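Dear Dr. H.,

I hope your travels went smoothly. While you were away I took the liberty of generating a structure for the chain from your last submission, since the lab meeting agenda had it listed for discussion. I wanted you to have the full record in hand beforehand rather than looking at slides cold. The sequence, exactly as received, is reproduced here:
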Amino acid sequence: MKGFQTRPGLAKQASAPPAVKVVLGGDSDRKLPVTFHPGVYEVKCTSADVVQKRTTGTVSLALTFVEAESCETMNLPPMWLGGGNSSGGTSPALDDNRWLVSQLSRAAGKDPKGLDLTDAAKLLVDKDFTVEIGTDQINGRECNRLVNVAVETE
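The corresponding predicted structure, in token form, is as follows:
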């Protein structure tokens, strides 16, 4: 039979602690992001936020994509675009992420040349995209990553 043991050295409380009301889950309509299998998906960008950490100076773009068929939110971590340990502004990850943001801008109908990141983020909201999604491991947890963006060709 399994059971729980009291941790040694933990004194029993003389009286019961005061009642505390804890609400778990918050908004009952809010769903947690889902990690999708690698593949091509139709998505809507419902939010795009530029995030800058004061402590490290890193700049990232946090995108929220909702998959069209299931209406589920994709589990996408922010895309690192600069600052911090960026090796003077160049690295394969930075180059890939910057290219993906430019492809998203193109797919949204705007030439990315000279486009500020904040303006690009605003441009992406409420737009539909066809994207290729992969999976990645971050801090031991599986998540999605943006691999490619379909852009209209002439």
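Two observations you may find useful: The chain is about 15% helix and 30% strand. The longest strand covers residues 39-52.

With kind regards,
E. W.
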